[in-house]
Amino acid sequence: MLEILPIAGALGAEIHGIDLANDLGREDLECLRNLLNEHEVIFFRDQDISPARQKALALAFGPLQTHPAYDTVEGFPEITILESTPDKPTKIEVWHSDMTFRQHPPMGTVLKSVIVPPRGGDTLWSSMTAAYNGLSPHMQTFLEGLTAVHDFSHGFRESLAEPGGQERLGEAVAANPPVQHPVIRTHPETGKRVIFVNALFTTHIQGVTPAESRAILSFLFEHITTAEYTCRFKWQPNSIAIWDNRSTQHKPINDYFPAPRRLQRITIDGDKPY
Known about the structure:
Blueprint: E1 3-6, E2 13-16, H1 26-39, E3 41-44, H2 51-59, E4 64-65, E5 72-73, E6 76-84, E7 108-115, E8 123-127, H3 128-133, H4 137-144, E9 147-150, H5 152-155, H6 157-161, H7 165-175, E10 179-182, E11 184-186, E12 193-195, E13 202-205, H8 210-223, E14 230-233, E15 240-244, E16 248-252, E17 261-268
Parallel strand pairs: 2-3
Antiparallel strand pairs: 1-2, 3-15, 4-17, 5-6, 6-17, 7-15, 7-17, 8-14, 8-16, 9-10, 9-13, 11-12
């Protein structure tokens, strides 16, 4: 029997009583999807599953995407490696939703811990549903009609600036031109409204002046970090997080250098935001 332990007021729940190494039946998968819609990010402990099982778990939610810039697990191009080492520390330090530079950003992500630091290295999530509900009705109405631009090159500008970065990521840049998404999107399963701009990939808002765009985005980027909208997860070996990329943002806490950290991520294909 599943035990569901919410970890914060706005979002997040630990799920106990399920072994993700086993094939999950239709009822189990429907239950997980309902829990994801309700809690937006769900966590599992002590899940020593293989890459094949992680892929099968993600496939239960939909077709998979690949990432144009990260290394992958051998034999599994859908599983990207998120690794930080003393020689190559992680560069991602801002709140974001995964891969919003695509016309169809991921609907969700399945992330498994492989190597965790002895201390630090937690991840924060924020509910964009709660953040939207925290806006005044006038601000909600104002933002409804706005469209923002999301750009791969903006998110990977530090990597592109490195020696050889343009050559290494040139194909990815060409394959991922800037895209437009509504500033406020509708969740296709729950019908709820959510904020859909993030500091990593969103460059500007269309139809307003540059100064107005900067002011609006600055406000929203700050607003979504409100503590009451967030939860925090401490990784242990073989922990798994599944989150709704349509209605959350997340931020890794890089407080563990020079300790190594490695996670394996799969993103699940989503729809075009509306």
